[in-house]
Please model this.
Amino acid sequence: MDDKIKELIAVGASVAAHCRPCLQFHVDKAMELGIGKDEIAEAVAVGKMVQKGGMVAMRKFADELLDQMPGYGQTEGQTSSHQDMVLKIYEPAMCCSTGVCGPNVDSRLVAFSGALKQIASMGVTVERFNLAQQPQAFVENAQVKAHLGELGHEKLPFIYLNDDLEFSGRYPEASELFSVLGLNPVLISDVDNQPRDEKSSTIPASMPGADANSGGCCPGGECC
Model:
């Protein structure tokens, strides 16, 4: 293993270890060895992935440890660590708040909305913003505005957990959401186990104006 590879490993390890002086030292050393910015950035990205994996694993372990404590969650006034989590979804322009509308309902959105409902019931704060209905929310959030500038509208939805961008450009599976949140996978909603045709025909009862004859929440069975 040559010195360049050693320094790139050290850069990634410094990020994973949250050691700022270590990172500064090894980045400077890497530049002295002639390592380019792209290679250093790649090493930083690897360190971030390791750090992220460790955070999810520790969060899950901490929750499991608490769940094993006698009486945990039963004492009045006691709060769950899940209540400290905020899941924010910034979505592309849709004619309704969840996109579960119109004659051809996207099964992915049905499954996603079902997963969010269960996640919210477990104490996680869930906030959804639709570009068509709440454009100001995109403008007022500097982080979202910056990501729109960098990635473009085609990479919506942006899904953040406590202001960290976890997903972009697609709606994740329920299992992915639960993994990022550190929630027990056995609690995932049965919506993931439904046949595709059952998912597609599901219209949440809470959707305004939804009925079986209209084809969705939009008048006349068409999306605006």
